[in-house]
Structures are given as structure tokens and as C-alpha cells.
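Chain A, query sequence.
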Amino acid sequence: MLFQNVIKHCRHYTAPVSAICKPSDVFTNLSNEFPYYLPKIIKTSLTKKKYEDNIEIKERIKNLSEYHTLAREPIQGKLTFLAFDALAESKDLTEEKLHQVQVLAWAVELVQSYFIIGDDMEDNSETRCGKPTWHLLPDVGLLAINDASMLRSFIYEMLKNNFDQNTSTKVENYVNEAFLTINIGQYMDIMMSKSKDFNKFTVEQYNFLNDHKSSFYTVKLPILLALELCNKVSQDSYENVNKICTDLGILLQMQNDVMDYIDRDSAPVKTSSDIQKKKCSWPAVTALQHFNEEQRREFMNCYGRWESEKVERVRELYKEINLPHLYRLEEQRINKTVLEKIKKLPDNATPSADFFYKIFDFIHQYTEDISPSILKSNVSMSAI
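Chain A, predicted structure.
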């Protein structure tokens, strides 16, 4: 692949990408335990509450937490494990720290699951990860609003009751930052969909929107939490994470947007409706840059409409400009930019260049495949 030509010029990076991110025993064990770990977290998180013995509440929280989280590939959770494994020293590999990193992995995944509930209600989505959306379940309906609120509160209970006060305050601040940035991104997303001015559908607007909507919680949050757990947070480390990981988070969102278009009949991660909802998606923004006048006129007439023929015409217009090829070119450009930023890090940077190469390699395995087959395995970020 073309991006590999960039890699061989990077300092400390002469091996193939896949060789750099070989899973360690710590990462493998944490990842294998993740799907089964929630009951332990519920037990340690609700012990100080008077409803700790309320079986109905505990089951509701468990079912609510697992419903979407275990139906998708836990990219954020695994990224938390990867970052912790790369940062941890031998003194960090205690039973307590290994429990805490599971708590953090579940926390970052539940942040996404929390927003998914509201996002699916706003978009009238019927399915996600091949399952009915939470609010469409027989015993849910509008109770989903209360469920989402309970899930958000449970995230803070997890953090408060599994860390000392100093650490819990810091990780709660990062989680709250994630909530705020996603809320801003969601607001911007909705307002862009209501806009009648397609001149606002620019690359700059798309990147700004998705830095808020997805980039922070998808890539930055897991790394910052792992840094905090390993006591390696500083102003420089925060800035390094922000500088290098913003593009990676946006790339993940781009891939998700492209997959929404490529094959709507292959059990997509969520019900495909970006075209109908007039989303400021990467396909729409990119297409507007490459359309001729006639194509642009047709697009503006069809985009944001629910009639099947209008939707299909937008898809045909995307095919006419070979959208998957344009994605591949942009992916390679972003990869090159990120690798150049990593290369410029000083030798004593925290996190190190080698750390960021591992993060790059991990993210790349998800962004490189935009074939319809990837949709069937739900390995994409279940983006909001």
C-alpha cells in the first residue's frame, strides 16, 4: 500500500506496520476479559449505594450497558488497553491497576453507548449493529431517556468508586470534557443538516465538526485516561495527544461515513440515513469538491430527500466520481501527515514516538478496509 512508502522514512520505524503492534500478553488478557468484566464493575461501583441489593436495578444497568457495547467491536476499549500496555511500567501491573484499566475501558465504551441512545432517537434509526435500537425494544420506548440518564450517572459511579479521590476527579474531568465536546459536535451536526447552504459543506467545517463529535472520545480520551492511570499526564503529553490524534479520530469518522454509503444492504452498523438526513458527511463534502456543475445541481436537488429515487441518484453520483478511490487518496494523505508529526517528536517526548506508532498501527487496521464485507463483522466504529 502507498502509505507504507512513508513509513520506511520515519525514525525508529523500519519494520512493517503489523510487526510494531504485536499484542502483548497484558493486552490480550485484558481484551479477552473485557466482555465478561461488567458484573465485577457493577459490584465495585454500587457497593456504597442503598440500591446495591436491588436486583432489578442492577440487571437494568447491566442490560443497558451491554446492549450496544458488546454488539460492536470495542475499539475505544481496546485502545485504552493498548495505551496502558505501552505506558505501564512493571509497578503498574498490579491487580488493582488491571482492574482499574478495565473500568476505564468500560467507561469510554459507555460514553459512546450513552450517546447512541439519544442519537438513534433523534435520527429515528431502527437498527444498529444488526439489532433493534434501544428505544424500540418492547419494554423501553420513551423510558430510553431515563435509561440514558441512568447510564451517564453510572459512568461517574464507576469512576468515583474504583479510584482514589484525586485520580477519580481527574478521570471524571476527562470524561466530562468528552461529554461536552460530543454535545457540541452533535449540536453542530444537527444544525448543519438543517442548513440550506451547501457552501458550508467544506473540509474545514467537516474536520471541526468531527473533532468535536468523534475525535476526542474515539482516540484522545482512551489515551488520556491511560496516561492518567500511569501517572504520566502533563501539559506536553496532552498537547502531543491532541496534535497527533485529532487526524486519526477524524479518519475513523471518515471511514464510518464512507461505509454508510458503500453497501446499505450488508447489515450496516446503523441504519443508513446520512443522505436522507442531509448530513455533513465526508462523502457529501468530498463530492461537492469534485462534481461538475450538472452533477452539483442534481446533488443539491436530491440530497436531504427521502424518496428512494432521490437517494439512489445521490449514490449514483458518488459512483460517478469514484468515491472509494477518493477516500483511499485522502486516507494516504492523512497517514503521511500523522507519521510526519510523529517523526518530529523530540526524543524525550511523552508519550514517545514509538507509542504513537503503535496507536497509528492500531487505528490503521480499522480505516484501511472500506469493503462491504467489513460491515458484516461490525468492526467499524459504531459512530454517532
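The mean pLDDT is 86. The longest helix spans residues 165-194.
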